[in-house]
Amino acid sequence: MSIKMYLPILSLIFIICFRIFLLESECNSNFKTNLNKEKTLIWGPGLRTDIVLPVRYFFIQAVDNAGKNFTKSVGAKPFRVVMSSAGGGHVRYSLDLLDRQDGSYIVRYRLYRSYKDLIITVRHENTNVGTSPFKLQGHVYHEQCNCPALSFTKWLKTMGCPSSYGQIEEDLQPWKKNGFNMSRFTSDAIKKFDNDYGVHSICHYKIINNKIFRKCYGEHTGFKMFADVTLLSLTRKVAIADVEFFINLGDWPLEKRSLRRNPIPILSWCGSDETYDIVMPTYDITESTFEMMSRITLDILSVQGNSGPAWENKTNRAFWRGRDSRQERLDLVVMGKKNPQMIDAALTNMFFFPKNEQKYGKLVKHISFFDFFKYKYQLNIDGTVAAYRFPYLLAGSSLVLKQDSKYYEYFYKELLPNVHYIPIKKDLSNLLQQIEWAQQHDFEAKRIARNGQNFIRNHLMPTDILCYHAVLFQRFSQILQSKPIVDPSFSIVDQPFDQESSCECNGK
Predict the structure, then answer these.
(1) What letter would DSSP give residue 180?
(2) Do 331 and 257 share a structural domain?
(3) Are the beta carbons of 57 and 466 closer than 8 angstroms?
């Protein structure tokens, strides 16, 4: 066949491609001329000297010439952020600009030492944006600076923390009226949980004069490192009232005794409708708060900047990956095999049930959590307890369908079904029906997805994780009948020493 026969088709393809190029150029040009550098908004805790975080962060909201917020991305890297010091010295830091795909951006940065009079400059096309540059006057402390604020009340106000949380008040209700003497519960807790040496592990913590003491019981106590890091970080930032408590190092909530039998007040990462454990943020979301931009990649901020394509471009199916830690997960995989047009579900590991490739299919490789959000609908199914991925799923741009469960994390009761997520029955019997509803009500599904996303942005950011821990320990201290005393059998948990932190705590 002669090439002449293809010339009209090739010419048409060339014209289409050229027009697309012109359209993109025009959009980029409109963006460049329509972004109002003076009206663009910049705010957040990372622009304040008096807020200390492992990774500091602030927000940029792009605004057009008409004074309206952009609602779609204005480019992957439209802003350039530079750190400098007033004295002109070099600043050691790492920095990310995360595009939330809705016209807003998260700037997060990790300092590698303390600085005085830090300057943060935000620019677009070599022009300062908003009220940039921002001058953080005074000492901008490194995370490992041990310079606690002496007034707990003032620290709460500085951080923007509430004075209390509904979940904390509910959890402490059994002991609030009369308080309790921890020494009365100590032998009871050790007897109850240390007898099952290979099953349960707990740690008894005391904070005295803002120093941390610990004694652990049980065989598997490695998870004490998560509690240690949390308490060390918190006491470096604020003076905590003298307090003592037990922390459950396992996933399962422990205290099942009724109120008539004086349940032991024990702190756990997961709660349930059948227990009286006092719930605190999970070790997973807490560690991701302290280690972001370090040795982990999945955290509540990174998800917001990697939540997949726009809603309209997502695959119109429900998605799930995970291990076989619950029967309903196996049922989900079988359901997906029968309804592949609605569900993409597969197992990545099998530890709890016999392998059956004919029934469940072959195990699949792990994929990036960020790739989950290529799908419109995310399935949150319990594991051994509550699935700790739930806050990360909500933080993305997909609609979450959550299994009814007796287990919960500390923030669950603030969420509303059909407002922040779509509920599904525990046995998954209405799952297909709920997916079908979402597919047929795309506008409502998108709105619920956005509500869930906004909840995370407003309630589960890094400052919120610190706030909840601080308020929990403070409220716990207020119902103790006697102050803790130093016990020589306890180990002291020392603060890390970092010579480069250059802490000057005068005036804190």
Answers:
(1) B
(2) no
(3) no
